[in-house]
Design a protein that fits this description.
Number of helices of chain B: 13
Oligomer: heterodimer
Order of helices and strands of chain A: HHHHEEHHHHHHH
Radius of gyration of chain A: 19 Å
Shape of chain B: elongated
Strand order of the largest sheet of chain A: 1-2
Largest interface: A-B, 64 and 53 residues
Distance between the termini of chain A: 53 Å
Number of strands of chain B: 17
Strand content of chain A: under 5%
Chain lengths: 293, 423
């Protein structure tokens, strides 16, 4: 019986890494722009479809097509921010919810038309391979997914901390007027942030496409999952998303092991409600809290 | 932004996000003309032509349409005593929303003055429009409602042609029980929503009654989950031989993927929804082989009945009309029409109270044979008045990439499944 908690924790980390990568973009947009991006789920799914078609049409390995789906969705995110989202920044938060919700509905239905509502799955030749780790059978694709997720989350963290652009993004998040006075092109920085966020969501989509079947109807589930991760971990930083994602992964797996899988969502939303009551800014807090918006 | 603002913002967003899950969709009304004149019988229904249920909603509508066109062309409609009345349909798009469906059924009854009602698609939807049929005393036959909960209301005017969800796995269990070296230990997993839970509970009851099978566990999981590893590992550590799943297509695909990568090798696997769909086979390729599914209807089934003839004949008519193959949703709904037609011709009247009498004479003991299989309405046994208890589900197996009927009749089942390393 000792093996069961180990397997729950290993499986929790495997799925938690993906939760983290999937939520990091959502967290960034919320932290920097104060926009709850309800388009998050469709962006993630679009990333999955890019990898799906790259594999189905050209035989491109889904892990190699991650950069492709990131570039495509970066462009989508940048354009979407400049044309629509920029208009509602600094306005009533309800407007950002309505606009992004509307776009999500629209894109979901377009996906239904062009990609069909059928469930798709990317199935590379090594899709069923696995190896033993601490006595637990670990599916190779999930392990690869976790490694890529951790590398990408670390990369985003470096980008935000060490580069000129990252500094500009953080400065803008803390004080829009101040950043503008220092010569930062604020709308451009916002659009870049949105683009990067979309690119990271897309990369999570590419990996999810390999480990689980997907269909346009799931967009809401993915948005909600990202929301829970951010509330758990904290807003605006890759570290917050990582903590939230891994915690959620382990919590749901332990729940499944001890109480049964049927209770996973009960626990997930109980955690959400508790965090909102006790520590609404998440475990690591909001790095941009108190900034001049 | 202050702390207070951010907090209320998060709450608001949570609520909106949750609302997003229940996906609302646009509004378009559609349908054909009707008018319930002296020389026609007007049937009313809503189907989901848009929204999340639209795939099966369209099949539902096609079943109704095919019945209408075939009968109007073949014999001018329905014989009522000495005259023949044309079949007219009034169909609205309920946009996959039960509140819209309720409004539209109300309208069908009070403004369009329909003579009889056909059902919408899905158990939940049928359950929410049932009271309208009931309070107006107009019989409704549903072809898309398999949950027990639709029939436990003791409604007098609501009937269904699909077998109950609880009985979906009966033939799988019966077949497994009768094998030479049957799979002993049985594990049941299912999505925790209405229909799959019915499938899971029904399977548990059937396994407990079987002679050679041993029930080990039944466990549920949330809809749309992206990880079933804990439940698969549990089945693996409990040495499950037969895994039965009350699934939707998504979780059926996911379960097979994870069984393969976690090297779980049961002797037999059966899912309620998934295996017959192209998605399942395309997504899984070789991993879909040997998996069992259930179907209410296949063209190669040997059923025969009046008006249309054999199952194969229905398949041919459907392909001519719509250019695609019918699945069981499009067969059970055409059967709704046939059953009404039988009751009307037998009674010599299309008046609601007469038709109800006619329907009540089609019982489990004295079923009506159709191309889709026997229809016999429960008169209240098991607390399921109106449900079709005469028909069982057929078992199919994916063999060389195609779903083949294996029970009752059909080709031999391939058993046990080869292990993953043998494939």
């Amino acid at each position: 019986m000792v093996a069961i908690p180990t397997s729950a924790i290993v499986n929790g980390l495997l799925i938690g890494g993906l939760y983290a990568l999937a939520a990091v973009g959502f967290s960034l947009i919320f932290g920097v722009m104060d926009v709850i991006n309800l388009t998050h789920g469709v962006i993630l799914l679009l990333g999955a479809y890019v990898s799906y078609y790259a594999f189905a049409l050209f035989g491109l390995d889904p892990f190699l097509s991650i950069p492709l789906s990131m570039v495509v969705l970066f462009a989508f995110g940048y354009a979407y921010q400049r044309t629509l989202v920029q208009r509602i920044i600094g306005e009533d938060p309800l407007k950002s919810l309505l606009v992004t919700f509307g776009v999500a509905m629209m894109v979901q239905n377009l996906m239904n038309v062009f990609f069909t509502p059928d469930y798709k799955s990317i199935d590379p030749s090594y899709g069923g391979a696995s190896f033993q780790f601490l006595g637990v059978t670990v599916p190779t694709v999930r392990a690869m997914g976790l490694v890529v997720a951790l590398v990408l989350v670390a990369l985003l963290s470096v980008l935000l901390r060490r580069t000129e652009m990252g500094r500009a993004i953080r400065a803008t998040a803390l004080d829009r007027k101040g950043a503008a006075l220092m010569g930062v092109n604020v709308p451009h920085i916002f659009a870049l942030t949105f683009g990067f966020a979309a690119a990271f969501s897309a990369s999570a989509g590419s990996i999810l496409g390999v480990v689980t079947p997907f269909s346009p109807v799931q967009e809401g589930t993915y948005t909600l999952q990202a929301f829970v991760v951010v509330v758990l971990g904290g807003v605006g930083t890759p570290a917050g998303a990582l903590v939230g994602g891994l915690l959620l992964g382990i919590a749901t797996q332990l729940t499944a092991t001890y109480w049964g899988s049927g209770y996973q969502q009960v626990i997930m939303f109980t955690l959400l409600v508790l965090m909102l009551l006790v520590r609404p800014n998440g475990l690591l807090g909001d790095v941009f809290e108190g900034g001049e918006k | 932004m202050t702390d207070f603002d951010r907090r209320s913002y998060l709450k608001l967003a949570g609520v909106t996000g949750a609302a997003g899950l229940t996906s609302l969709s646009g509004c378009t009304g559609g349908g054909s003309n009707g008018g319930g004149g002296d020389d026609t019988i007007l049937f009313g229904a809503t189907v989901s032509l848009t929204g999340s249920l639209s795939t099966n909603g369209k099949l539902t509508q096609q079943g109704y349409q095919l019945w209408k066109r075939h009968m109007n062309d073949k014999q001018g409609g329905i014989k009522v005593g000495d005259t023949t009345k044309k079949i007219e349909l009034k169909i609205y798009d309920d946009e996959s929303s039960d509140s819209t469906a309720r409004t539209q059924y109300q309208k069908l009854v009070s403004q369009d003055n329909v003579d009889l009602l056909l059902g919408p698609y899905s158990s939940g939807m049928t359950r929410s429009v049932g009271p309208i049929a009931e309070s107006n005393k107009i019989p409704m036959i549903a072809g898309g409602a398999a949950s027990k909960e639709v029939y436990t209301n003791d409604w007098d005017y609501v009937y269904g042609t699909l077998p109950l969800a609880n009985t979906y796995m009966d033939n799988v269990v019966k077949m497994a029980d009768g094998l030479d070296s049957p799979p002993k230990r049985v594990g049941i997993i299912h999505v925790n929503t209405l229909f799959p839970t019915g499938v899971g509970k029904g399977a548990e009851a059937a396994v407990k009654e079987a002679k050679n099978l041993q029930f080990v566990f039944r466990e549920s999981y949330p809809e749309g989950t992206s990880d079933l590893s804990s439940i698969i590992n549990k089945a693996k550590s409990q040495n499950i031989d037969l895994l039965i799943g009350g699934t939707h297509t998504q979780s059926a695909i996911l379960a097979m993927k994870q069984m393969k990568s976690l090297k779980f090798n049961p002797k037999m696997v059966a899912f309620s929804v998934g295996p017959p769909t192209p998605d399942f086979r395309e997504s899984l390729g070789d991993a879909a082989e040997h998996v069992l599914g259930v179907t209410m209807w296949l063209p190669e089934m040997s059923y025969q009945g009046p008006y249309i003839g054999s199952a194969a004949k229905y398949n041919e008519l459907f392909k001519e009309e719509f250019g695609s193959e019918p699945d069981y949703h499009a067969a059970s709904t055409a059967t709704d029409g046939l059953v009404f037609q039988h009751a009307i011709e037998q009674q010599g009247s299309a008046a609601a109270e007469d038709v109800e009498k006619g329907l009540n004479s089609i019982t489990t003991d004295d079923p009506l044979e159709t191309f889709y299989g026997p229809v016999g309405f429960s008169t209240g046994q098991l607390g399921t008045r109106g449900a079709n208890l005469a028909k069982g589900a057929g078992v199919l197996q994916i063999q060389s990439g195609k779903p083949k009927l294996v029970y009752p009749g059909g080709t031999d089942v391939q058993y046990p499944m080869p292990t993953w390393s043998e494939r």
